[in-house]
Design a protein that fits this description.
Blueprint lengths: L9 H17 L21 H7 L3 H9 L5 H12 L4 H10 L2 H5 L1 E5 L18 E4 L7 E2 H9 L9 H20 L5 E2 L16 E4 L7 E3 L4 H18 L7 H16 L18 E4 L9 H4 L26 E2 H20 L3 H21 L1 E4 L3 E4 L2 E2 L5 E2 L12 H4 L7 H10 L8 E3 L4 E3 L8 E2 L1 H9 L4 H13 L9 E3 L2 E6 L5 H6 L2
Antiparallel strand pairs: 1-2, 3-4, 4-6, 5-7, 8-11, 9-10, 11-12, 13-14, 15-16, 16-17
């Protein structure tokens, strides 16, 4: 039933799934920009022309109603791949998904050569700039925007427009990191003249931040790793050192300062006395995952583990034990990649510092983040505290334990990873592996105990060499994407119950 990959080897197909995967990370609704006066709901007896009018082809709709950025290279990739796919439904999902970030989320972009008057101070907002929103929220998450752009990185060398967009994204994130390195989501830059949004939350955070600059200030280690990843990918695909400005090096110094601060334990290792962490967060909420315990500091962590604290997970849920292993793995990988880049560009001392820190984190993961499970053997824990406590689970959001090979932390055939993979893809090993009458996959506390994320299935495919597992899992992804776009999460008992549809339900559900 799934005639997907004739003319393609399944192993090669997994590489193309990176495009679906990075797209699924966006998982937000595109803005509703249709003319409601021209699109009446369908009624019994409507003719074919009425159906076409109410349910437009998404690719046509996006080009004329949504599109915020255009790339000829992206269009070429779509034409090339879809022409070789025999499963036309899956081809349509890719055709809709691959350009979606460009279609809907580039809210502000200026090229390097575009002249403009700046009043922010020397170097700030200089050069190309790109503000990439996270779907239906007018704010930029460092991690999400880096992931949204990841599938275009391989096109940067031959497409100047994509190269400028990516360079602009790096420059914009540079300013975010310098100013508020503990924050995860940011308002539109002042030169964009776009209005700021209020997240509607009552947060008390240290260090303090400017509300007109920051949308939300949850400290997530992987957000800083995502900034490095955005730069590393750009450099590796283009060979260009254009991002390595004075401001970028200032951002890197800021990251190293945060890593040093967040590597400290809760208690002084000599005196045993409590030492208040540089970062604290409290939110007025009745949802436990939205704030930190113990007055905003989180549960105690041990010293000298080599690991780095993360107050929140990539799902924006609070960590239970602050040494979040997937986030540490991602940071280790990106520090080592950045060290290689800087060494090539003659920054040997800085490269040594990054390599030393990256290796220390990696050692810390294998020393404190690997635990023995009575059923699965040695596995990577999701979170640890350095005292011996651990959380065994996985969440769909990247970085995750399932995605460790995708990040480049271990090979897919690594024994500890294989044990971990088996654990997180079974209900007996992972409390957030959800299975029902219609769907299965990994979910997480962010959307509750009934909704799994299609994104987790794409990672499962990307980390498998089993043809049956790949085709069966891909069939589930297609089943849950009946609107031609990938949702954030799907009810495991009914695929019609989902969160974050890309186009409004009014357009592609109620009317059709």
């Amino acid at each position: 039933m799934l005639g997907v990959v004739t003319n393609m080897r399944l192993a090669a197909w997994r590489a193309w799934l990176h495009f679906f995967y990075w797209f699924a990370l966006l998982a937000n609704a595109a803005p509703d920009l249709t003319n409601e006066e021209d699109q009446e709901p369908l009624k019994p007896g409507n003719d074919d022309e009425s159906v076409k009018k109410a349910c437009p082809d998404y690719t046509h709709y996006s080009k004329f109603q949504l599109q915020t950025f255009v790339s000829s290279a992206v269009e070429s990739v779509i034409e090339d791949l879809t022409a070789r796919m025999t499963d036309k439904d899956l081809a349509r999902i890719f055709e809709n998904a691959f350009p979606n970030t460009l279609d809907t989320t580039v809210r502000w972009h200026v090229d390097s050569k575009q002249k403009r008057k700046l009043k922010e101070g020397e170097g700030r907002w200089d050069g190309a700039q790109s503000f990439i929103v996270t779907g239906d929220i007018n704010a930029e998450w460092l991690r999400d925007s880096a992931n949204q752009l990841a599938q275009y990185q391989t096109l940067a060398k031959k497409d100047k427009a994509i190269r400028e967009l990516l360079l602009g994204a790096i420059n914009t994130q540079t300013e975010f990191v310098i100013t508020s390195p503990y924050c995860n989501a940011f308002q539109p830059p002042s030169p964009s003249h776009l209005g700021a949004s209020n997240n509607g939350q009552g947060d008390t955070v240290h260090p303090v931040y400017e509300g007109g600059f920051v949308f939300e200030c949850k400290y997530e280690l992987d957000s800083l790793a995502a900034f490095l990843s955005l730069t590393n990918r750009f450099y590796n695909n283009t060979g260009s050192k254009a991002p390595l400005t004075t401001r970028w090096f200032e951002a890197l110094d800021t990251i190293l300062f945060v890593l040093d601060e967040q590597s400290k334990g809760t208690f002084d290792p000599r005196s045993g006395s409590y030492v208040r962490n540089e970062y604290t967060f409290q939110r007025d909420t009745n949802t436990g995952t939205e704030t930190l315990s113990l007055g905003g500091i989180g549960n105690p962590l041990n010293s000298a583990t080599g690991l780095v604290r993360s107050a929140f997970r990539p799902s924006d849920d609070a960590t239970v034990l602050g040494f979040f292993i997937p986030g540490n793995a991602m940071m280790s990988v990106e520090l080592l990649r950045a060290a290689d880049m800087l060494e090539k560009e003659g920054h040997d001392d800085l490269a040594f510092t990054l390599r030393e820190k990256g290796n220390a984190i990696r050692s810390g993961i294998f020393e404190s983040g690997v635990v023995f499970h009575k059923q699965y053997g040695k596995v990577f824990a999701y979170e640890v505290d350095g005292y011996g406590s651990s959380i065994l689970m996985d969440d769909a959001n990247l970085p995750s334990l399932l995605a460790l090979p995708v990040m480049g932390f271990v090979d897919a055939d690594d024994e500890i990873y294989q044990n971990t993979r088996q654990m997180v893809l079974e209900k007996e090993g992972n409390p957030y592996f959800l299975q029902g009458r219609a769907f299965r996959g990994i979910g997480g506390p962010h959307v509750g105990a009934t909704h799994a994320w299609p994104m987790s299935l794409l990672v499962q495919i990307m980390t498998s060499d089993n043809d049956k597992e790949i085709t069966d899992t891909l069939a589930l992804v297609k089943k849950a994407s009946s609107l031609g776009l990938i949702h954030e999460s799907v009810n495991v008992n009914s695929v019609r119950d989902y969160t974050r549809k890309f186009l409004s339900e009014q357009e592609f559900h109620d009317k059709c």
